[in-house]
Amino acid sequence: MSRLVRGVVARGKGAPVSVETIVVPDPGPGEARVKVQACGVCHTDLHYREGGINDEFPFLLGHEAAGVVESVGEGVSGLAPGDYVVLAWRAPCGECRSCLRGRPWYCFDSRNAVQPMTLEDGTPLSPALGIGAFAEMTLVAAGQCVKIDPAARPEAAGLIGCGVMAGFGAAANTGNVQRGDSVAVIGCGGVGNAAIAAAHLAGARKVIAVDIDDRKLEWAKGFGATDTVNAGSTDPVEAIKALTEGNGADLVVEAVGRPETYEQAFYARDLAGTVVLVGVPTPDLKIELPLIEVFGRGGSLKSSWYGDCLPTRDFPMLIDLYLRGRLPLDKFVSETIKLDEVEAAFTKMHHGEVLRSVVVL
Ligand code: APR
Ligand code: ZN
Ligand code: ZN
Prior knowledge:
Blueprint: E1 3-10, E2 18-24, E3 31-40, H1 43-49, E4 59-60, E5 65-72, E6 84-87, H2 97-100, E7 118-119, E8 126-127, E9 137-141, E10 145-147, H3 154-157, H4 163-174, E11 182-186, H5 190-202, E12 206-211, H6 214-222, E13 227-230, H7 236-243, E14 249-254, H8 259-267, E15 269-277, H9 291-297, E16 300-303, H10 311-323, E17 333-337, H11 342-350, E18 356-360
Parallel strand pairs: 4-8, 11-12, 11-14, 12-13, 14-15, 15-16, 17-18
Antiparallel strand pairs: 1-2, 1-4, 2-7, 3-5, 3-9, 3-18, 5-6, 6-10
Helix pairs in contact: 4-5
């Protein structure tokens, strides 16, 4: 039987979101219906609402979620009602060229639910990042459900599903951070602070946090930053060099998505250092890099997509680190809110007042 539940819907470009009754069908073949317990408010939800991703309104927002499997469809194995899961936006197919070449994060055919969730009048909803979890229940592909240790509280666990994985993976997977590295992270929101935590855990010698907001820099210390730089008052490239004996950092993670911060990241790298772009640029942004600087200083410029993660490998690992006190996920949770407070949470996010607001159901 279809379920009628409450969910947060964005009906049109720029319009405030509203809590509406949505219809969640019974899971079909390969699908699972999940009772959502907590879901973080991420920038991408706001981008959907602003029409910055596509115009397939109405959207069912929310995509950083933990919950419990309520029922599964035909042919689903290895997942059963009662399983505690974090939802992934990509369930790699395992068969396409990217998957076969060991880069499943670029899967061409990642799996999502086939049946649509709808408004009560039958209008199909587009679920944010194939999830749609600002709702009491959601429908996903079974492969999007990653089982985790039930000891992890949902408010913290759900964050693994997007922002924390993106930042942690940018440093750990894409940047391959090593013990003894000096690391600089530009932009210390949820994503940047997760990169800081990864660098700290890997045994980086210096973890330099760069932001324009002193509150963010203060929070960054709680994730393992050894030094902080306010880029509003100090040239961050000079500051990073000064903190690394004039050399620059072995790894620079850019977690803002602006041309000026990407340029700073480029110039702040050491000889043969690595620069990872994880901040999402808008399609029109460009930078100019002198080739001689690339040629003469070597290194690599990379981008990181969903932290280049394999959810079934990385989610349980991050949860283990959390449960053993080594990854302070709770510090990302600035406040817990109800479904009807998502719009207010967007405003707080916009003003930099929170790392994450988390909807608890
Ligand atoms: N220099 C340094 N830091 C900056 C600058 C700048 N010029 N401009 C903004 N920032 C800081 C903000 O103060 C904020 O702390 O960058 C941080 C960005 O963090 P959030 O806005 O909280 O965003 P977050 O969720 O961490 O995502 C960062 O990654 O996934 C993408 O779309 C996301 O592009 C965004 C980025
Ligand atoms: Zn694939
Ligand atoms: Zn997100």
